[in-house]
Amino acid sequence: MADLRENPCVSVNKLGQYLTARPALRKRIIHAQKHPCDPKYLRYPEASQAIVEFLCNGRDETILRYHQHRLLHAEPESDFDAHRLALCVEAIQHFLKASGELALTHAVASPADEGLPPLALSGVAINVRPELLLRSVDRHGVMRSGLLKLYFSKHTPLDETSGQYIATVLQLFAEQNLKQQGEVDHRLVRVFDVFAGKVFVAPKARQRRLGDVQLACEEIAARWDMN
User: H/E element holding 62?
Assistant: First the structure.
């Protein structure tokens, strides 16, 4: 297990779940964020890497096929590792079937800066960690920017509400960090549920959702020391 986190923090994907969860699940989410698993037990880093490479390099399906083949023939170090590799292969296959849903025809994708700081809100550090920077030129020749966040969960798909919450936080994060990349366009701020094959675009009207996010962060901060 990784070190205990002393200060309140939450990943943006878990925050989306938290906002639609029942009280018992909310408590479990806070506990899991305070006591994170060791990074070596993360399930989808290879799948995420394959998808980013695909989207940034001409969207050639052979890139995804290559990574599937590589992972299928990798030698697992443990039972968990074997399970993780199989999940990554499955995730890539789901993405292959649904990548068209992203509709990124006119956007140029590049890897997002991994050094961007968390988003601070109501005493909580929200770890956003978008996978991709998206840029596009509008019909007036103005550069627009946005971000793509991948969501991986085989058994807990995002519903419309949680997906919209995550996209709303992603847009706020983009507005704080992409000033040099062009004005943020909410249509280029997207969350993609890989297993469900569903994309969530940041809503234009967001004031109520931001209020909900702020209240959720206040609640997480208040309960942090109880977990």
Answer: helix 61-72
How far from chain centre, in Å, is Cα 16?
A: 10
Q: Are 165 and 202 within 8 A, CB to CB? A: no
pTM of the model as a whole:
0.94
Per-residue pLDDT of the chain (227 residues; tens, 9 = 90+): 557 899 999 999 999 999 999 999 999 999 999 998 876 667 899 999 999 999 999 999 999 999 999 999 999 999 999 999 999 999 999 999 999 888 887 899 999 999 999 999 999 999 999 999 999 998 888 899 999 999 999 999 999 999 999 999 999 999 999 988 889 999 999 999 999 999 999 999 999 999 999 999 999 999 999 87
User: Residue 135 corresponds to which amino acid?
Assistant: R
SS3 35: coil
Q: Which amino acid is present at 178?
A: L
The one-letter code for the residue type at 79 is: D
Residue 55 in contact with residue 192, Cβ under 8 Å? no
Q: CA 51 to CA 75: how far, in whole Å?
A: 21
Tokens 């004005």 sit on residue: 183
In the chain, the DSSP E strands lie at 9-11, 108-111, 119-121, 124-127, 132-137, 143-151, 183-184, 190-193, 198-201
Q: Which of 89, 92, 93 is nearest to 72 (CA)?
A: 89
d(CA 1, CA 97): 35
Q: How many CA atoms lie within 13 Å of 132's alpha carbon, on the beta-carbon side? A: 27
